Amino acid sequence: MSDEQLPVSGDEPTPAGRLTSQSIRSFVLRQGRMSEAQHRFLDEMMPKVGLPFRPEPVDLAQVFGRKAPHIVEIGFGMGQATAQIAQARPDDDFVGIEVHAPGVGSLCKLIDEGGISNLRIVQHDAVEVLRDMIPEASLAGVHIYFPDPWPKKRHHKRRLVQGPFVKLIASRLAPGGYLHCATDWEEYAQQMLEVLSAEPQLANTAEGFAPKPDYRPLTKFENRGIKLGHGVWDVVFRKV
């Protein structure tokens, strides 16, 4: 997740357990500078690879023109890892969700230059996309990589990975589908582990933290942190 896309949370879910547009939001939209190339690719490619938000379930098999496992990435930042994963897994289809226009333009550029056909982009709030567009029990996986850690204790309520949102994600996973989170903040990693462990629809694939799956590439941000001695923690749970 980019620094420009910041997760926040608000009210508790409704008594029926349904998230409303006011209960949790996956971002606070901030303006960011866009390069001419990002503007150009955003304008040229989104009509081709963009999936417009609409408050009704979408048939992803129809969108991609084939039946394949569907994986959603929430907050793809500038999209480098997203593009690499899609290229490395041509038999899977990916939907990247991001509100940050420079990041969307950047991923559009990578899709065009790499000839990537198994990746679509939704430029909208991830909570509403999951809640309204993604049918229940339809996803093979969900990726949340390096969401904003909100390190100050008084800001922890703004973190993306919290019980109500994890419950929503779990409801969209098919049996055996996975939720993969990664962070370089140990305290946030512990919270992720606790929150996912508390969701009865999910089961941990490891004894605590998981080894980094081969499909998740090392980002420039992550490499820089590793060189500085920072740790990185992966959490991988599956739908039971």
UniProtKB/TrEMBL annotation:
The domain of life is Bacteria
Please give the residue ranges the record annotates as the region Disordered: 1-21
This protein's UniProt keywords:
Methyltransferase, S-adenosyl-L-methionine, Transferase, tRNA processing
Q: Does the keyword S-adenosyl-L-methionine apply?
A: yes
Name a GO molecular-function annotation: tRNA (guanine(46)-N7)-methyltransferase activity
Q: Which residues bind substrate?
A: 152, 184, 219-222
Q: Which SUPFAM superfamilies match?
A: S-adenosyl-L-methionine-dependent methyltransferases (SSF53335)
Against InterPro entries, the record matches this protein to: SAM-dependent_MTases_sf, tRNA_(Gua-N-7)_MeTrfase_Trmb, tRNA_methyltr_TrmB_bact
What family does the entry list? Belongs to the class I-like SAM-binding methyltransferase superfamily. TrmB family.
Function recorded in the entry: Catalyzes the formation of N(7)-methylguanine at position 46 (m7G46) in tRNA.
Q: Give the protein name, as stated in the record.
A: tRNA (guanine-N(7)-)-methyltransferase
Q: Which organism is it from?
A: Zoogloea dura
